Amino acid sequence: DVLSQSGRWAEESRRSLSRAMAAEAQAAARLGETRMRVERALAASQGAEGQTSAVQAGNQLLGLTASQLAGIEALMIAEGRALQAERMERLAREARAEEIRARAFPE
């Protein structure tokens, strides 16, 4: 039956969306940890003396790159969340429309 299959698809879509949102929340939580690691590495690099001070500039550039990548990841997470929220809204509208249709045309 098309209606029951449609209902199963909608439910699977909701479960999938829920799993994706949980994964994105975990990725977002890791951003702070990543930034702290970069900051600690840069601080240790700046404290170096002698021959290792020549490597300091490279370390700082790598740290900046890592920080920028973390920022890009944050943007991607935010975009994903916005898309998921939009999808959830669409699913809710579809469910409401189905409910209205079922009331208007009972089987």
Please explain how this structure is put together:
- The protein is rod-shaped and about 85 Å long.
- It has helices at residues 2-46, 53-104.
- The longest helix is centred in the C-terminal third of the chain and has 52 residues, at 53-104.
- By secondary structure, the protein is mostly helical.
Total beta strands: 0
Low-confidence stretches: none
How much is the radius of gyration in Å?
Answer: 24 Å
Report the oligomer: single chain
Give the helix proportion (percent range).
Answer: over 70%
Report the total helices.
Answer: 2
Provide the residue-averaged pLDDT.
Answer: 79
Largest sheet: none
- Compressed to H and E, one letter per element, the order equals HH
As a percent range, the share of strand residues is under 5%
Outline: rod-shaped
Q: Give the N-terminus to C-terminus distance in angstroms.
A: 12 Å
Q: Which structural class fits the helix and strand makeup? A: mainly alpha
Q: What distinguishing features does this structure have?
A:
107 residues, mainly alpha, rod-shaped
Strand-helix topology:
Layout lengths: L1 H45 L6 H52 L3
Helix pairs in contact: 1-2
In short:
With 107 residues, the protein is mainly alpha-helical. The protein has helices spanning 2-46, 53-104.
